[in-house]
Amino acid sequence: MNQPKNTLQRLWDWLTPNRIALLYGIAFILASVAQYFKPQTGEYTNYNNYIIFKQAFFHLLDGKDLYIMYPAECWDLFKYSPAFALFMGVFAWLPDIAGLTLWNLLNAMVLWYGFATIPQATNRQKTFMLLFVFIELLTSIQNAQSNGLIAGLILLAFNKLENGDVRWSSLFITLTVFIKLFGLVAFALFLLYKQKPKFILWSIAWTLLLLVLPIVVSGYDGLLAQYQSWWKMLKEDHSASVGLSVMGWLQTWFGYNGSKTLITLGGVALFCLPLIKVQRYSDYTFRLLLTASVLLWVIIFNHKAESPTFVIAIAGAALWYFMQPKNTVALVMIALAFIFTSLSPTDLFPPPVRKQFIEPYVLKAVPCIFIWGVLIYQMMFKKYKNA
């Protein structure tokens, strides 16, 4: 009876964060290659998102509008900043198989590094968190999306803030905004730390730099036109859907069809509520929970949230669970998150179950919504000892 336990113990001892980096690298290279060579079933490639990002760079170079459809090239709109389109030039010149693989590795390894460098986390905690997010990260990677990168940048911003490095933390948060605008929420983190004026100045500097950087290829008038088109696209996009979000949950479970803006404002109020606990700002666990809250909030209150985006929310759930003392309620909630959020899109759930129950009732989002609610309660009323 002892031998299996000893073997399992040796396995856990072997699975250090650095070895998981190797696991990530191998797994996501294979996933990228498999996606590239997967037989094409329609007009577009199986890595359409990467093509959108790649072509945005060439559209920027050619002075074309970034924010209209190009059906001859790819499906769906480019919705990111001109600076992101410029950044994709790092990959765009490469053959697709190389560019796709390197893009996916960037997403995976930034998230790995975010977890691997969390202050005060043990190697065991880092290992559990990295393994817990693996399936969701794979879902995002298979769609060539930027969600792993965003989650990793938010974690790195927290890590740098904990180390007193406002220059790099402000850059990481600013970068998330120029990838997806919901990264703005992560700026709440700096409120818990000293050097606020310095952080603000660095954030302004990085923002101005990223705003004007594409001017080197598009010129002033061209860049201004891109920002005008981006703003128009974002305004039109707002009312398009409710997604796997609080709005979708309220609609499908309770028949709510009211204002999405009202729900978002309610979410903002609840998110900000723990910030009145100024005396808790010196508590490491409080600061860590706010980081988890950011990661969860930007997805569950995002009306465009879809399955691949949930690696961000699952990263928040992992941070919430594995970095605090365990209890039965938390264990049940994290287990439900693993089952319904991470596993529900996989073949472990038969297609009829996914189509008739998981998707209509937004069950992928529900565990993360409940975890966020518990997290806010903990930030308001529970006291922790500093690690």
Task: Write the SSE topology.
Blueprint lengths: L1 H13 L2 H21 L10 H15 L19 H6 L1 H4 L3 H21 L6 H10 L1 H9 L4 H16 L3 H14 L16 H17 L2 H23 L8 H9 L5 H13 L11 H17 L9 H13 L5 H16 L7 H8 L7 H16 L6
Helix pairs in contact: 2-6, 2-8, 6-9, 7-16, 9-10, 9-15, 9-16, 10-11, 15-16, 15-19, 16-17, 16-19, 17-19
Q: Which properties best describe this structure?
A:
single chain, 387 residues, mainly alpha, 19 helices, 0% strand, globular
Please count the helical segments: 19
CA radius of gyration is 21 Å
Query: How many discrete structural domains?
Result: 1
Specify the structural class.
mainly alpha
Between the first and last Cα atoms, what is the distance in angstroms? 35 Å
Output mean pLDDT: 93
Strand tally is 0
* Biggest sheet descriptor: none
The gross shape turns out to be globular
Content of β-strand: under 5%
Run of helices and strands = HHHHHHHHHHHHHHHHHHH
Helix content: 55-70%
Low-confidence stretches: none
